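The pair is listed for reference:
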Amino acid sequence: MHEAVFKAALRALERGEEAALVTIVSTQGSTPQRVGARMLVFADGRIIGTIGGGCYENDAAGKARESIRTRKAGIARYDLSDALAEENGLICGGRMDVFIEPLDPLPRLLVVGAGHVSRHVARMAADVGFRVHVLDDRETFANRDRFPSAADVTVADIAAFLAAADLPPAAYVVVVTRGHTHDLAAMRALAGRPLRYVGMIGSRAKVARIFDALAGEGAPAEWIARVHAPIGLQIGAVTPEEIAVSIVAELVAVRRGLPADGAAVAMKDRR
């Protein structure tokens, strides 16, 4: 059982999939599992392994999903002789503590667009621990010389690539293409997908036009409301380097579970 849990945890880390490890760290009296029993809980509720089943495993799984959301570890204590245990048929009579720890995979960041801002975003994001992937339809921009720190650089039609891309729910996507048309095409391909972060660069007027277009095409209102646009924290950024700082700062804030203010940085010329 431990091998299955550890293999699943390794796959989750490699894929960048959000999960939490739940481990029994102490017991007193009779308990359904011993110290060291583990289970892996995913954000969508899937479970691999067990800490004994029943109401307490369900409760621990719920706490694990909350830890994935908050990125905070903690101890949960259970008394297996209380009224809840009796109602659920648990007559062990012991106590146990479980340690709930969210896994921290290297977050996957897809930078859509390979212009000046993208170049600085990719470098800074890699420096702070993101696994960066770059996408653009122009080989003269999307290449290793310009993005040496990226895990990969892809030259392809933006909309077609995104429509077929296997992006895990924990992925971050920054849309910083060379213009309105490509930004809209990228957002159409992403619309409705359950991603950890989607941000789009542009003025408030441009963002409003794109959001109106997406809404008119049936994009869920809840999804649109979660998009960080205009992108970046409000720091008064002007240059491509400063704009990249504001974007990466927002990525870090989201990764660490802090509220990003959603205020953005407009950029007139991103070519």
